[in-house]
Amino acid sequence: HLDLGGATLLGKRDGARTAGVTVRGQRNASVTNGAAHGYYYGVLAHDAPLLRIDALNVSANWRDPLATDPTRSPWLDINVRAAALDVPDLTNLGGGVALVRCDDARVSGVVARHGANGVDVFDSRRVDVAACDVSHVTGWGVHLHNTTHSRVAACTADHANRPRGGDSAGVLLNGGASYNVVENNTCRHGGDGFFIGNEHAVAPSSHNVVRGNNCSHATDNAFEATFATNNTFAHNDASASNYGFWLGYSTHSALVANRVHASRVAAAQVDNGHHVRVDGNVISGTRGAAALVLDGVPNGALPATP
To answer: H-helix or E-strand containing 86?
Structure first.
């Protein structure tokens, strides 16, 4: 167990493959009560089941210098995998905390601002990310890749954005991130607020419950879920974005009792999906041509409640 005792670790801010704290192959370890700035990651853990990370400030770690450039900021690769940490990938990764194969880990009370990402979790099960501040990053506030049966709760992931959005998001689920609960977070002013970012050839991220989140004022979509199935979005705020919900190629999913106000294009759009339930939502002030667009949805769609 490592209690930093309030100490601050300072790196060289050069993007080298270093971490303030590295945990590898340790069971039931903990890292608490300190800070790490200027590293590739503040904390980097591999194969550390039951790891506890608590009360750390891991802000101001690696961020791609081009990420904030108005004309040269690159689009992110949402399919990035854990192996890219060893390169290291300086475009899509870096920032606060990265966990790889850390089943039953908990990350709580962590501040990870002004880096590329806040918390990245790869190839893990039953991880709990709670009450963290992962705002003002240029990539993803919380990122689950091939991570299942986990929870992201009560986190602040505002302003996870870059010029043109670039597939940034407050919360990103990808690569088979299924059976998770994402609840009571704020992801305002992101590229997307919440993003299930699957592509056709990648394992879908399905059977997730996304509830009670405020993902308003996104550059692109307050909530996006593509090539996914059996995801439920309930009691969320999806206002003041291009689209409140964009569910392209999504199936057997549900939009229930969400608030969508002042969408710039449409409150909800489902392209080439089917069996999407839309029920009890409050939709108002849509600025685009339509409040609800169910393009290519042959059946199973219910009308929204005005």
So the answer is: none
pTM: 0.95
Tokens of 144: 């689950």
Under 8 Å between Cβ of 291 and 254 = no
At which residue do the structure tokens 């963290």 appear?
Answer: 132
Structure tokens given for 259: 């608030």
- Are the CB atoms for 255 and 277 separated by under 8 Å? yes
pLDDT, tens only, 203-254: 899 999 999 999 999 999 999 999 999 999 999 999 999 999 999 999 999 9
Contact 45, 52 (CB under 8 A): no
Task: Name the nearest CA neighbour of 51 among 149, 142, 126, 135.
Answer: 126
Q: What are phi and psi of 74, to 5 degrees?
A: -80, 155
Which secondary-structure segment (H or E) carries 210? strand 209-211
DSSP state of 249: T
Residue 259: phi, psi to the nearest 5?
A: -110, 125
pLDDT digits (tens, 9 = 90+) for 19-29: 999 999 999 99
Angstrom distance (rounded) from CA 107 to CA 97: 9
Q: Tokens 């989140």 — which residue? A: 213
Q: What is the largest CA-CA distance in the chain?
A: 60
**Which has the closest alpha carbon to 209: 220, 194, 189?**
194
